[in-house]
Amino acid sequence: MTDNIRSALPYLLIGSAGLAAPIIAPNFQIQLAMLWMMIILALTWDIAGGQMGYNSFGNILFFGIGCYVTAVMQRELFFDIAEYANVTGKVVTLTSYQYFTGFSLGLALSVLIAVAVGVVLGSGILGLRGHYFAICTLGVGVAAGELASGWEFVGAGSGMLAPIYPGEANEQGLFYYYTFFVLAVLCFFTLKRLYSSRFGLAINAIRDDEDKAEAMGIHTTRYKTVAWCISGFFLALAGGMFGHLNNFIDREVAFPSSTFGVWMVLMAILGGKGTIWGPVLGATVFHVTQELFWTYLFGWQRVALGVLIVVIVVFFPQGIMGWLRERWPEKFGETVDTDASTA
Amino acid sequence: MNPILEVSGVSKSFGGVVANSDISLIVPVGKIIGLIGPNGSGKTSLFNSIVGYHPIDRGSIKFDGAEISKLRVPEIARMGLLRTFQQTRIYGKMSCMENMETSVPHVHEGLLTMFTRFPAEVAEKAEGLLEFVGLYVKRHLRAGELSFGQQKLLEFAMALMNQPRMLLLDEPTAGINPTLINSLIDRLKRANSEIGITLFVIEHNMRVIMDLAEHIYCLAHGELLANGAPEEIRNNQRVIDAYLGAN
Q1: Which among B51, B107, B138 is the nearest to A336, CB-wise?
Q2: Which residues of B touch A343 (CB under 8 A)?
Q3: Closest-approach residue (CA) in chain B for A219
Q4: Which helix (H) or strand (E) holds B168?
Q5: Could you read off the pLDDT of B23-35 as tens digits, one per residue?
Q6: Are B143 and B92 in contact (CB under 8 A)?
Q7: Can you give the residue range of the structural domain that contains B185?
Q8: Does residue B99 fall inside a structural domain?
Q9: Which helix (H) or strand (E) holds A154?
Q10: What's the CATH number where B239 sits?
Q11: How many domains does the structure of chain B reveal?
């Protein structure tokens, strides 16, 4: 019983801190919502990047799909198709009911589209390995941005405004804080559960030796595609929410390859690839550090961030969790039985 | 004699290098068959052809009566024809238990079973097999931390976990110390007699293969040089010239 309480304690602490934070520190609502989003980005990148060993630089694609699809869905649901040319780039005002109906349907549609794109793209490029896969996904992310910035329907280069939140500005912050919080919690526990299933072991096997996994009859293509689609699922939701929190969507917001796209990789590496707590820890440390840089080193914040990245890669190649595991392997269950009679 | 594996007229070239030329052989069900030959004679290439690692140029490969020469590696593995590697391959960053659990047969795995956990019987079976190869006490260690010989034993246990009907073993005793070799031979024989797995073994250690196999095929320069009972192979002049050497 005490063991149960002890193992539940971190969840309870983080959970209650998460619930109370925006009320205790209302001025930091947006930064805190971003913190949960960073955790989602790092956790979802780690599915393929850490647990499966497929370093992707294109996951931002799903994020962008979420951004655009959710906003477009809201717009199209309540405006005449003939009007949309006039609506693009203008402020769209919706009632509460319209806003939230459109928002939820939009999120649902983004998930469907992201997963479908994941299946189609995944079955094509997940056959590539190592550096080739990484380069290819980099191309995918860039191409998606180019497409979005050339497509009139979504505002092309001038972007589009997400519908205005029907309520006070701080209500919007609070609403999106809690949606991100819930999504992060959902994402964490879904992945935690998945990593302890056949799925988790199979993608670990693919990471350690894909040829061996194939030779043992594991459905490698299927596992890889599903892993990629699970990233897509959560990223599309995060993207849909982020677009609305940001109020404005263009290629820089929806497909930020050089910021979120790179950060998600860094955060997972910093915390420890291939662990469940690593990305959470990495995202938290990274986000807090980055906010401090903006506050105290303004003007040099990008330089400081660059230095931080170098430090992470050089001194923590295994990440925080990886380092801990190397230091105290027995704490992670790597023990030899001392009971000789069983041998 | 009921053949479980039937290789007929298989040829495979890599550019100008002829790895296998018109190889035909039969592995009867429930037997232990050996494959010997000098380095570069095409033994591993033949294994790779059989398990679908690369397409063959000509010929036919039948497993249990079904043509498999057009199938891919995982499909053939799921039919129950499994191979182990010359360069031992295990999942280094996973614990021995995880290595074992993920090696369950994958034939009847649907989209939804992907997300289920392994039932308790799987863990029990994994523990049993780890005990069979003498790795039980190290079951929670990362497989990459085991010694080379122990990794070979783990790979063998993983293969058994997969419940194959036939196992292709590529030099199972290479790099293993003499005492361990004896216990490995013993376990190979038990896997064959108790579990009923047909074995097809590449081996350079003559003592091992003569002890293990009932029938031996010998390759040289990609061609089938001779085949017969161990005693016949040992005394075959062509095999002695090409491989065993006169002493």
Answers
A1: B138
A2: 134, 136-137
A3: B74
A4: strand B166-170
A5: 999 999 999 999 9
A6: yes
A7: 3-92+165-244
A8: no
A9: none
A10: 3.40.50.300
A11: 1
**Segment B155-165 mean pLDDT:** 93
Query: How near does any CA of chain B get to the CA of A342, in Å?
Result: 7
Q: Hey, what amino acid is at B237?
A: Q
Chain A hits for B137, CB-CB cut-off 8 Å, are 336-337, 339-340, 342-343
| Partner residue facing A217 (CB), from B94, B140, B162 | B162
At A80, the pLDDT band (50, 70, 90 cuts) reads: low
Find the Cα–Cα–Cα–Cα dihedral A135, A136, A139, A140, rounded to 10°: -140
Q: Which of A19, A10, A14 is nearest to A178 (CA)?
A: A19
Q: What's the pTM value of the predicted model, to 2 decimals?
A: 0.88
Q: Reduce the DSSP state of residue B104 to 3 states and report it.
A: coil
- Find chain A residues with C-beta within 8 A of B89's C-beta: 209, 211-212, 215
Contact B213, B35 (CB under 8 A): no
Residues on chain A touching B118 (C-beta within 8 angstroms):
198
Say if the Cβ atoms of B115 and A198 lie within 8 Å.
yes
**Residue in B4, B16, B78, B14 with CA at minimum distance from that of residue B46:** B14
CA nearest A221 in B: which residue?
Answer: B74
Bridge partner list, B220:
B223
Rounded Cα–Cα distance for residues B45 and B59 (Å):
14
- ipTM exceeding the 0.90 mark: no
* pLDDT band, very low/low/confident/very high, at A341 (cuts 50, 70, 90): very low
Q: Find out whether A265 and A28 touch, Cβ atoms under 8 Å.
A: no
Residue B42 region by backbone torsions, left for phi larger than 0, else alpha for psi between -120 and 50, else beta: left
- At B245, give phi and psi (nearest 5°): 80, 150
> Taking CB atoms and an 8 Å limit, are B94 and A201 in contact across chains?
yes
Average pLDDT of A224-238? Answer: 95
| Inter-chain Cβ pairs, chain A and chain B, closer than 8 A | 113
pLDDT band at A342 (very low <50, low <70, confident <90, very high): very low
Q: What is the dihedral of CA A187, A183, A64, A251, to 10 degrees?
A: -130
* Burial class of residue A215 in the structure, from the number of CB atoms within 10 Å of its CB (0-12 exposed, 13-18 middle, 19+ buried): buried
How many whole angstroms separate alpha carbon A79 and alpha carbon B138? 65
d(CA A223, CA A203): 7
A216 neighbourhood in chain B, CB within 8 Å: 77, 82, 102-103, 106, 158, 162
pLDDT digits (tens, 9 = 90+) for A145-178: 888 888 877 777 777 888 888 877 778 889 999 9
Q: Which residues from B are below 8 Å from A328, CB to CB?
A: none
Residue range B146-154: average pLDDT?
Answer: 90
B80 → chain A, closest CA residue: A217
Nearest to A238 by CA among A246, B18, B21: A246
Under DSSP, is residue B7 helix (H, G, I), strand (E, B) or coil? strand
